[in-house]
Amino acid sequence: MELAVRKYLLLYINLLAALFLMVPGLQAKEKSFTIVIDPGHGGKDPGAIGYSAKEKSINLAVALFLGEMIEKAHPDTRVVYTRKTDRFIELDERANIANRNKADLFVSIHTNSVKRGSSVRGTETFTLGLARSDENLEVAMRENSAILLEDDYLQKYEGFDPTSTESYIIFEFMQNKHMEQSIGFASSIQKEFVKTKRANRGVKQGGLLVLRKTSMPAVLVELGFISNREEERYMASSSGQRALARALYNAFDRFKNEYDRKKGALNGAVSRSPAQQQQVMPERQTATTTVAVAKKGTVVYKIQIMTSDKKLPANSRQFKGYKNVSSFTERGLHKYTYGESTNFNEIRALRRKVAKDFKDAFIIEFVDGEKVNK
Ligand SMILES: [Zn+2]
Predict the structure, then answer these.
(1) Which of 70, 127, 133, 329 has the most neighbouring CB atoms within 10 Å?
(2) Do the bridges between strand 77-81 and strand 299-308 make them parallel or antiparallel, or are there none, so unpaired?
(3) Angle at alpha carbon of residue 355, lines to 210 and 316, rounded to 5°
(4) Mean of pLDDT over the chain
């Protein structure tokens, strides 16, 4: 090619690029939030099988409806699916997809089934943890058994046998810093299912492999029982699938709004210059801590070591032998703390020690017995 022609061509390409950047409509909207939607099973793994429907198809249909609703109403949200078609994906890979995409939320969609009796019905949402009932363990075992269809599953999951109860002990101390948000999101989903007139089996914990490696708030939803003829019919129908997706969407909407609110508050604080912050501080104090000031505002620091939706006994094994663990409740959750001091450096030193056993332990602050939320 002649040099002059090449020059023109280059100019032309540059112009096109500039035009593309200048026209707002051509640019992708900025995505500030990512949700990974994981329709359980697929391909050679049908999941639970009903009278005529298959779990994998119900999961996928609801997942696609949900994603569509989110994309329509939340243009700043990126929706990533672990699968959009009928194909087999390994459990660990599902979590990897979420981690690689730096997802802010992970929701795995499943359909329940029991061998005994066709009258069992209802929805339930799981977060990662040790199953505290045989029923919950049964769900985890059934869902985890998908790995039996994977190559080298023993190696990949470090000898984990999804069918042996002993394998599940590894989930006992599996707490993560997203647990509180996961439980909050799970409760929100269950509330929405109730509004949709579905039977509510509650928020549960289970040793679910698909949630194990996720590093963001993550839940696994069981939409209903495919072993129950009536629920099977509902879940296999397009209207039922839409209604279930709508319930999940409403819970997502609440989660996302809360996320934006917190992020907005954080950005507001960060973007102020130190001088501005000083000006703002006194106003804030009078607005939020009037009571504390009146009572002299004694500040006490504690270390929060874990959160649970259940009240745990003082000698619970989950406390790993720590004595004098205190607790308080907040928004329906039990929060467990260790140690207390009015000296921040002291509590910081203690937290460092505690973190060896509870790696996500963090410091919280109380003013005159009231927790300070930052
Ligand atoms: Zn499933």
Answers:
(1) 127
(2) unpaired
(3) 70
(4) 84
Query: Cα angle at 282 between 278 and 288, to 5 degrees?
Result: 130
Q: Which DSSP letter does residue 168 get?
A: G
Query: Ligand 1 mean position to 175 CA, how many Å?
Result: 23
Q: Any idea which residue has 């569509």 for tokens? A: 68
- pLDDT tens per residue across span 47-79: 999 999 999 999 999 999 999 999 999 999 999
Distance 208 CA to ligand 1 centre (A): 11
**Cα–Cα dist 51/226, whole Å:** 8
Give the tens place of pLDDT for each residue, 262-288. 888 777 654 444 444 444 333 333 333
Say which residues have a Cβ less than 8 Å from residue 70's Cβ, sequence separation at least 6.
Answer: 35, 77, 79, 249, 252
Expressed in angstroms and rounded, the spacing between residue 70 Cα and the centre of ligand 1 is 23
Strands 200-206 and 333-341: unpaired
**Whose structure tokens read 């900025």?**
30
Phi, psi of 363 (to 5 degrees): -90, 135
The three-class DSSP label of residue 200 is: strand
Kindly give the distance from the C-alpha atom of residue 107 to the centroid of ligand 1, in angstroms, as a whole number.
Answer: 12
Within the chain, residue ranges assigned H as helices are: 3-22, 55-73, 91-100, 134-144, 153-156, 179-195, 209-212, 229-236, 238-271, 274-288, 290-294, 344-354
Which DSSP category does 103 fall into? -
Neighbours of ion ligand 1 (CB under 5 A): 40, 47, 110, 143
46 Cα–ligand 1 center, Å:
9
Q: 303 φ, ψ to 5°?
A: -110, 120
Question: What does DSSP say about strands 200-206 and 33-39: parallel, antiparallel, or unpaired?
Answer: unpaired
124, 222 in Cβ contact below 8 A?
Answer: yes
* Distance from residue 317's CA to the centre of ligand 1 (Å): 30
In this predicted structure, the answer to whether residue 128 has a pLDDT above a threshold of 60 is: yes
Question: What's the pTM value of the predicted model, to 2 decimals?
Answer: 0.68
Please report the DSSP string for 24-80 in residue order. GGGSPPPP-EEEEEEE--BTTB--SB-SS-BHHHHHHHHHHHHHHHHHHH-TTEEEE
